[in-house]
Specification:
With 355 residues, this protein is mainly alpha-helical. It contains 16 helices and 8 strands. The termini are far apart.
């Protein structure tokens, strides 16, 4: 009975067909075939991946996990562990295309600023003949193959687009090109063999990382590793090697998300809002008496305050003034009534008597 069944095939098939996948997609596949959440069943998820790797090892393949240094997301992919002449026959890229990729790769990893990318102009202007070492290790100047000499600029641009589509490269902002997630998965041993500086936190190749500002210090740390390291309030924000203070500012939202302890400023905020509301109410109470139109509106039943003596006194004043106004209006109505009555008696008594 085989150790691997259809549940394992459901994960291997999309990785082989579509290439590296993000962690969210892998978790969805695992939850769909097993009915379990990887976050709550981590041991079962690890055993699930171990069984797949055990079977893939017979054909020199491996299911590997890494972080994409461009955005910090975790990705999974199937990689080849053997780089012999037979495995090179399976590539779909030509010799000039491979030489162009190698030139872009070396230009990115050799950048002392560790930006993790180069401009697209620099990528297209890479000399392919410099990627052909001789037997003693020096670069060949004579006998350049015609395929490299005749590789046009349009062919280079088409190759870059193809490498981006296959996730060997990736387009960055402002017309730059960097390494893709497939390069981070497959070239782990190549990074170590070519002495690429590693991150001081996760011990992975620091192709795109932050540099220590200390003199004669070559420490590099990934941006996502800095967030994890400096998110804790008690952690010292300094270089782990030379002790130089690390100039890194944690955004407030991320600091609250990673920090398990409450912040002093956040504790004072809930008390600040009631104080502001009380001051606002006090300022409203201290306003001078409103005009007669406003008082009439208040008489008709609009909002009233019953919690302070000043508001009660203000109501008494308005009610007294309201009574006086009612008396005045009543007198005016009666005066008009009697005026009309007298006028009717003098001019048209029949109209008044019949009414």
């Amino acid at each position: 009975m085989s150790v691997v069944n259809w549940k394992h095939h459901a994960l291997i098939q999309p990785l082989l067909a579509r290439g590296p996948q993000k962690e969210q997609e892998i978790n969805k596949i695992f939850a769909g075939v097993t009915g379990k959440n990887p976050g709550n069943h981590q041991q079962h998820f690890n055993d699930y991946l171990s069984k797949i790797n055990k079977e893939l090892s017979y054909v020199q393949f491996e299911l590997r996990c890494c972080r994409n240094q461009n955005d910090g997301q975790v990705c999974y992919g199937v990689v080849n562990n053997v780089s012999d002449e037979q495995s090179k026959l399976g590539t779909k890229y030509s010799t000039p295309q491979i030489a162009l990729y190698r030139g872009i790769l070396e230009a990115i990893v050799q950048d002392a600023r560790a930006k993790g990318y180069i401009s697209i102009i620099d990528a297209l202007n890479i000399r392919l003949e410099n990627q052909l070492p001789t037997e003693n290790g020096s670069q060949s100047q004579d006998g350049v193959p015609p395929a490299l000499r005749n590789f046009s600029m349009s062919q280079k641009e088409k190759t870059v687009n193809e490498l981006v589509h296959d996730q060997w490269l990736s387009y960055c902002t402002d017309g730059n090109v960097g390494l893709g997630v497939r390069s981070f998965l497959d070239l782990r041993s190549w990074f170590r063999n070519n002495d690429v500086p590693f991150c001081a936190v996760c011990n992975e190749a620091a192709v795109k990382a932050e540099l220590c500002q200390g003199e004669d210090c070559s420490v590099r740390i990934h941006n996502y590793c800095l967030k994890k390291k400096f998110s804790q309030r008690r952690s010292e924000r300094a270089c782990p090697t030379c002790g130089t203070p690390w100039k890194y500012q944690m955004p407030k939202a991320e600091a609250v998300e990673f920090d398990g302890e409450p912040n002093d400023s956040s504790q004072s905020q809930p008390h600040a809002e009631p104080m502001q509301s009380q001051q606002a109410l006090g300022s409203k109470r201290k306003k001078p008496p409103r005009t007669s139109r406003t008082n009439d509106a208040e008489i008709t039943g609009q909002g009233s305050h019953q919690d302070s003596p000043s508001s009660v006194d203000f109501k008494r004043v308005t009610r007294a003034s309201a009574r006086s106004r009612v008396h005045v209006h009543t007198c005016k109505i009666l005066l008009n009534y009697y005026t009309i009555r007298v006028y009717c008696l003098k001019t048209e008594p029949t109209v008044y008597l019949g009414s």
